[in-house]
């Protein structure tokens, strides 16, 4: 019986995780849940799973939640903020921590789980993008177990042998849909609207991640994650455009063999694998029908069309805080694009400018990473405001 914490319980990863857990009450129990704003949903989840602990962002959220949850039979202990998240991640009763908080807000609690030697199911990109070296050092030093939830990294993990995974490895191949603009001319990209960018050809996602998919910065972040997760050199990571999104990633070995993981784009597949590892369990996702597969296409990405992907490779080669700059500058640029303050093509230009202008300090502690992330965001906002005034 695994005792599980789900950070980000009301998001899409939380939904899929809790759906699997509900199907296997003999294997898993919920110790704690966290949520940021969806407090009514959290109340319903609390009644269903009756966790020992809830983590809310602040006193205002606590007041609102108490009103919503008044009179309910399950009344867990409630903790607040980053301190509440970190304390819960390190509780002795906890076996597994699902890190699905979006953005830099999830960084510190994931690091706390690593320092406590927990089994970590990681969906938060910022942890490895902004603090890859520090986080992986903590995983190794404290004998934590790290299992990726992203479908691409989970696919690579499934394809690599458990023993000596790098012994015969030549490279990993990360697939990308190419987003909604893979057939547009470069000139047409100048006039792309937020509504167009958020209309993904293969699936429905939140607005920010949809834009990241359109620019392919999301694939750049996944390249950085892959480097840290699997201890790879930049040269061992390749990205290919795969419009059908059926092959989630591939692994090539020195003898020419290529292993791929195929499946529907349903997060219950990688989550169930990580939850049960090294076993496998059933879940409610549809089975994959090979006979329904008509074709698989693969092509190299065009860095002129996807300059954000090139910038991610450049940041990874530079190392250190360059990846923190890439991620933070992108978030502010996307925020401005969605507000129609800048053009779609200005997202990459903003990231490139910040990578050129910002002096990167030595980052030796998780608090230093978080502080630097804030500085980058402030400088990016100032740069864009100055550009608009100019």
From TrEMBL:
Q: What is its EC number?
A: 1.1.1.267
Keywords, in A-Z order: Isomerase, Isoprene biosynthesis, Magnesium, Manganese, Metal-binding, NADP, Oxidoreductase
Q: Which GO terms describe its biological process?
A: isopentenyl diphosphate biosynthetic process, methylerythritol 4-phosphate pathway involved in terpenoid biosynthetic process
Domain DXP reductoisomerase C-terminal intervals: 262-378
Q: Which InterPro entries match?
A: DXP_reductoisomerase, DXP_reductoisomerase_C, DXP_reductoisomerase_N, DXPR_C, DXPR_C_sf, NAD(P)-bd_dom_sf
Domain 1-deoxy-D-xylulose 5-phosphate reductoisomerase C-terminal residue range list? 146-230
Q: Could you tell me which Pfam families the record lists for this protein?
A: DXP_redisom_C, DXP_reductoisom, DXPR_C
GO molecular function term, any single one: manganese ion binding
Cofactor requirement: Co(2+); Mg(2+); Mn(2+)
Binding positions for Mn(2+) per the UniProt entry: 150, 152, 222
Q: In which pathway does it act?
A: Isoprenoid biosynthesis; isopentenyl diphosphate biosynthesis via DXP pathway; isopentenyl diphosphate from 1-deoxy-D-xylulose 5-phosphate: step 1/6
Q: Which residues are involved in binding NADPH?
A: 10-13, 124, 126, 206
> Which reaction does this chain catalyze?
2-C-methyl-D-erythritol 4-phosphate + NADP(+) = 1-deoxy-D-xylulose 5-phosphate + NADPH + H(+)
Pinpoint the 1-deoxy-D-xylulose 5-phosphate reductoisomerase N-terminal domain residues. Answer: 4-132
User: For binding 1-deoxy-D-xylulose 5-phosphate, which residues are annotated in this chain's numbering?
Assistant: 125, 151-152, 177, 200, 213, 218-219, 222
Instruction: Indicate the family of this protein.
Output: Belongs to the DXR family.
The cross-references to NCBIfam families, in alphabetical order and at most eight, read:
Dxr, PRK05447.1-1, PRK12464.1
State the protein's name.
1-deoxy-D-xylulose 5-phosphate reductoisomerase
Upper lineage is: Bacteria, Pseudomonadati, Pseudomonadota, Betaproteobacteria, Burkholderiales
Task: From the UniProt record, report the name of the gene that encodes this protein.
Answer: dxr
């Amino acid at each position: 019986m695994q005792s599980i914490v789900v950070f980000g319980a009301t998001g899409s990863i939380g939904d899929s995780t809790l759906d699997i857990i509900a199907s296997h009450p003999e294997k898993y129990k919920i110790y704690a849940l966290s949520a940021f704003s969806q407090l009514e949903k959290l109340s319903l989840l609390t009644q269903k799973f009756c966790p020992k602990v809830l983590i809310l962002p602040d006193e205002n959220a606590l007041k609102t939640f108490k009103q919503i949850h008044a009179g309910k039979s399950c009344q867990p202990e409630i903790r607040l903020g980053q301190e509440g998240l970190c304390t819960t991640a390190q509780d002795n009763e906890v076996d597994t921590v699902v890190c699905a908080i979006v953005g830099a807000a999830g960084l510190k609690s994931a690091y706390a789980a690593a320092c406590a030697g927990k089994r970590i199911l990681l969906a938060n990109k910022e942890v490895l993008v902004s603090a890859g070296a520090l986080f992986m050092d903590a995983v190794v030093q404290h004998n934590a177990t790290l299992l990726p939830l992203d479908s691409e990294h989970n696919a690579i993990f499934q394809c690599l042998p458990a023993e000596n995974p790098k012994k015969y490895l030549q490279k990993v191949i990360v697939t990308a849909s190419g987003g909604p603009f893979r057939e547009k001319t470069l000139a047409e990209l100048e006039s792309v609207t937020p509504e167009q960018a958020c209309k993904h050809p293969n699936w429905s996602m939140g607005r920010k991640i949809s834009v990241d998919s359109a620019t392919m910065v999301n694939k750049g972040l996944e390249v950085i994650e892959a480097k840290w997760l699997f201890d790879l050199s930049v040269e061992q990571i390749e990205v290919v455009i795969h419009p059908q999104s059926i092959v989630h990633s591939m692994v090539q070995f020195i003898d020419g063999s290529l292993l791929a993981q195929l499946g529907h784009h349903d997060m219950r597949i990688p989550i169930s694998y990580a939850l049960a590892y090294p076993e496998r369990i059933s879940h409610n996702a549809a089975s994959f029908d090979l006979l329904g597969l008509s074709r698989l296409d693969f092509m190299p990405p065009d860095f002129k069309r996807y300059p954000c992907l090139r910038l991610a490779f450049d940041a990874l080669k530079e190392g250190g805080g360059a990846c923190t700059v890439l991620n933070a500058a992108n978030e502010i640029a996307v925020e401005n694009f969605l507000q129609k303050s800048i053009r779609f093509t200005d997202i990459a230009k903003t990231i490139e400018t910040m990578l050129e202008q910002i002096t990167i300090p030595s980052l030796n502690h998780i608090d230093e990473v978080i502080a630097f992330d804030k500085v980058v965001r402030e400088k990016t906002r100032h740069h864009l405001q100055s550009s608009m005034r100019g």
